TrEMBL record:
Similarity section: Belongs to the polygalacturonase-inhibiting protein family.
Organism: Rhamnella rubrinervis
Residue span(s) of domain Leucine-rich repeat-containing N-terminal plant-type: 63-103
Keywords for this protein: Cell membrane, Cell wall, Glycoprotein, Leucine-rich repeat, Membrane, Receptor, Repeat, Secreted, Signal, Transmembrane, Transmembrane helix
Protein name as catalogued: Leucine-rich repeat-containing N-terminal plant-type domain-containing protein
GO CC annotation, single: plasma membrane
Amino acid sequence: MRKPRGWLSFIIPIFQLVIIIMLIKAIMGRLSFQIVVLSMLSLYLLRSSVAVGSTPNIACKDGEREALLKFKDNLHDDHGLLSSWGKEEEKRECCRWFGIYCDNKSGHVISLDLHSSYNSTKSWSLRGKIFSSSLTELHYLSYLDLSRTDFSGNQIPSFFGEMTSLEYLDLGFTNLQGSIPEAFGNMTVLVHLDLSYNKLEGEIWKSPIWNICTLRTLSLSSNNFRGVQVLSKLSDHKSFSKCTNYSLEILDLRWNSIMGLFPNLTFLSSLKELRLSSNQMNGSVPESVGKLSNLEILDLSNNSFEGVVSETHFLKLSELKHLDLSLNQLILNVSSDWVPPFQLDDILLSNCTLGPHFPEWLRTQQNYTWLDISNTRISESIPSWFWKSSIGFQIAYLSGNQISGTIPNSSLQWETYPEIDLSSNQLEGPIPLFLFQVSALYLSGNKFSGLNCLCDVRDESHLSFLDVSRNQLSGTIPNCWSNFKNLIVLNLANNKLSGKIPTSIGSLTQIEVFHLGNNNFNGELPITLKNCSKLVVIDVGHNKILDQYQVG
C-alpha cells in the first residue's frame, strides 16, 4: 500500500489559480473553453486523490482519536513530534495530526507513519517502554511505520496478530528483542514486513512469518536469528505448509547467525532479491538457485560456502544485476567461451577462485560499474580488452592476485573518475598515463619502475589518493605536481627514489598524509611545504634528509 500524497494539498491552490486565469482568457477569446473544461476535470480528479489528513471536511472517528492518544501516552516525545496530537478543541481533528492519514470517504485512520529518517537530527525522537494495545482499535489501519522509535529492549507484543488489516509494517531500528510472536502468522494480508536492526532471535526457518503467504518484502537483517536447515527441501517444513503459493520478492536475512546449508528456495519463485550475507552458512551453493528466474540481486557474501559454482547456477538468471559471492571459498568453474544470460551492474567475487586465467566472460558484461575480483588467484596479465570495456567503471579492485606483465598506455577516457586498486600483484614497467585519470589509485606492492608520465598530465587531476609504495621506482621525483591539487594522501615510501624533494610538492594544498620513508632522498625539505596547511602526517624516515622543515 502507498501512503497518501500530502504534497498535493500545496499544488491544488496553485492549480485553482491557473484555472481562474485560463477562464478569464477563455472569456476574452484567447483560449479554448474545451481546454478550461479539461483542466477543471483534472482539478476534480486531483482533489479526490488527496488524503483526508490534509483536508478539513472529514471528521475524525472518536474511538480512533482516543486509541491514538492512548498510544501517545506510552511514548516520550523529546522533540515535540506529536505536538499536533491532543484533546483540546483545536486539536480534535486527528486526520490532521502529524503522521496520520485517513480514508477520504469514511474518515477511518488507514496510515500511521512516525518514522524518523536516518539522516534526521531527530533520530530516536520517540521513545517508549511498552507498546500500547490501543493500536488494535484502529480496525482499518493498513500502514504502520514506527521505524527508529526506541522501544528500550521490549519484546514485540502478540496483539499485532489482531491487526489483520495491516499491509505494511515497519519496526526496523526500534531496539526490540526476543522472538517473533506466533500471532504474527494471523496478519493474512501483510505485504511488507521490516524488523531489521533489532536484537530479535529465534529459529528463522521455524518462524510464524512463513505463514504469511501475502508477503512480498521481508527484511530481518542485523538481528540474532539463528537457523540450522537440514531439510533437502525447505518447503516441506511445517512452517511453510499453510501456503500453496508465495509472493515473496525481497528476502533480506543479512547479518544474523544463521548456520547450516543453503536451503532449496525454488518455491519462492517470485524472488527478486536474496540477501544472505554475513551469516555462518556453509556447504555448497545448490544449482537450484539458477531456477530463480526473477532474481535481480544475489548476495551470499561473507559466509563459509565452498565448492564449485558452475554455469548451471546461473542458467535462468537473465534478470540478475548484482552478484556478490565474495568472502567465501567458492570456485567459479565456467568455460572460456561462456556467455552469461545476464548483464551485471555489480560483480563482487573477492576471495573466490577465478584463476589462474583472467575471466574471459567479463568481456561480455557491458554495464558493470563495480568490479571486485581481488584475491581470486589470477596469474595472467590483464588483457587489452579489459581496459577498453572499463569506461563505465566506478570501482575496480584487482588486488592480491599474481597479475603480471605491463599495462600499455591507452587513450581511454572514463565516464567518471573511478577508484582503481591493482596493489599486491606483479605488474611492472612504467605507470601508464591513463591511470592518473582516476579519483583513487592503489598500486603498492608491484614492480612498477617509472613515474615520468606525471608531467604529461595537462589538466587538473581529480586524483585524491595515490599509493605507489613498495615498488621499484627509481631516480628523482618529477617536479610537476601543480596539476594534482586534489591529492589528500600520497605514498611513495619503500622505493629507490633519490635526489631532492621537488618544490612543486608545495602545490598540494589539500594533502593530509605524505609518506616518503625508506628511499634515498637527500637535501632539505622544500620551504614550499608551508603551503600544505592541512598536512597531518609526513614521513621522511630512513632517507638522507639534512633537516626537517617544521610545517605550518
